[in-house]
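Researcher: Here's the sequence for the chain we discussed earlier.
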Amino acid sequence: MTQQHADGFSSPMLEALQNAVRGAARATKFVHASTALSGLEKNDRSPVTVADWASQAVVALLLARDASTANIPLVGEEDATELRAPSHAMLRERVLEAVTHAIGNGFGVVTLEQCLDAIDSGRAQPSKRFLTLDPVDGTKGFLRREQYAISLGLIEDGRVTAGVVGCPNLARGEGNYDTADAVGCQAFAALGCGAFLQCGDDVAQPIRMREWSEGMDIRACESVESGHSKQDLSAALLAQLGAVGAPARLDSQAKYVVVARGGADVYLRLPTIKDYRECIWDHAAGTLIASEAGALITDVDGRVLDFSQGRKLSANRGIFAGNPRIVARLIDAFARVNHNA
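Model: Thanks. This is the structure I predict for it:
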């Protein structure tokens, strides 16, 4: 059955993405209920938890069962190479336990090998039409039991055309992002159809950015981790624009959701390393949701994000997302800083 939203909009494809993200959220919350958030470390030294693998497995398994998504390649962040190592039998069992919990009895029995194969099915290459997944975006936020997201986006001809960002710890209203909400939210959008937010079993409601006018404080959203964005430069750029409110700092693509629903006016992600380029799964779904809610999304040079370059946003550096007038001024301010550097 296709889910109906507050304005009557519905989409079988989008519902399949939503269902997959809901399942992944069940897996991550199951892992969160454990006191031991164990895992490995990736080559870039960022933590990997059981939740990352379980989430990717659940999404892949559920997408493969739905007719609208079964044949679409999945470009995910994780693979099961390390998980298959003989020394990681306990981790494999924990992943399978989380997947089994998330999928439920109606899916049928999932074996360990099916679970591992499902994780590896997310290693497809970007193509003309594909799905991209970050199974636990903001892993450090997850480990702190704060904000993280499950992000799933559909990319067609280099454009994001559908996206879902599940935020299992994000509360319905604005407030303390350091506290995990018991229910959480899910934001989703289809290109040209607007953005929506659903909390628990409530009917999904359309969301829109806050109206902003001259003289109002600019409420910015940025990463908790200073290593993810140049927070000092963000503050300097915003100071050039006028009255700056206290920044909202939280992990993951939940920041795009906060902007989309009016909790912040702009999200800044400034490159901390000269040649660093963002991964597509870190921004695909979130940028669509924010743009459908009225935000302008560009890189720091004012270019549209190009999702046709493979697994990275190779043609772009950094990101501004928010009120179009604020973003335009940030682009100018960034250009001046670069020119004077």
